[in-house]
Amino acid sequence: MNLIKAFSLYTLFLLTTGCVSLLDATSNSPIEEHKGTRTLGAVVEDQNIETKVSVNLRKASQLLKDSNIDTVSFNGIVLIVGEVPNEESKSLAGHVASETRAVKKVYNELKVSGVSTWLSRTNDTWLTTKVTSQMKFAENFPSSRIKVITEQGTVYLMGLVTETEADHAVSITQDVYGVERIVKLFEYI
Fold first, then answer.
1. Could you read off the pLDDT of 104-156 as tens digits, one per residue?
2. What DSSP string runs through 7-56?
3. Which domains does the chain show, CATH number per domain?
4. Nearest Cα to 44, choosing from 34, 36, 52?
5. Which residues contact 67 (CB under 8 A, 6 or more apart)?
6. Which pTM value belongs to this model?
7. Residue whose C-alpha is closest to residue 148's, from 122, 129, 121
């Protein structure tokens, strides 16, 4: 029985250490990753950040719980948009978001006003859909690396892009009817 265990461990060792040798033998050049590519772990971490920030905002105060707040994270950079009743609530929301683990930076774009109407939020969803669709159909454009968020006619663009790609994203967004303002929150590569 010990012989079988020893053979199994030896085989496992050979398989795990052989990967580097195998890749080295089959490739003539170094392995390179595109700097704009996020790992699955980064995507999951952004989802976790969004959930944690959203829950923590609701727990921080009744005013924040009753407000219309959307939280978006891309590569650890958090955008909070929506409406809050006063400046104190806006400040508290920014503080709560910035205290969340793995958050690199917070863009607090909350407006001090009454809650937006259902019609306004529906229009924002429609604008996001139109901008995203235009980006997906644009030739040679990295739409998978850009996140589009719309709040009260303002389109926020987040992602890992070059300056040229950022300019192209703005150009595409400008051509969409109904966009009132564009805010770039890109990380440049």
1. 999 999 999 998 999 999 999 999 999 999 999 999 999 999 999 999 999 99
2. HHHHHHHHHHHHHHHHHHHH-SS-----TTPPPHHHHHHHHHHHHHHHHH
3. 40-188 (3.30.1340.30)
4. 52
5. 82, 83, 84, 85, 89, 115
6. 0.80
7. 129
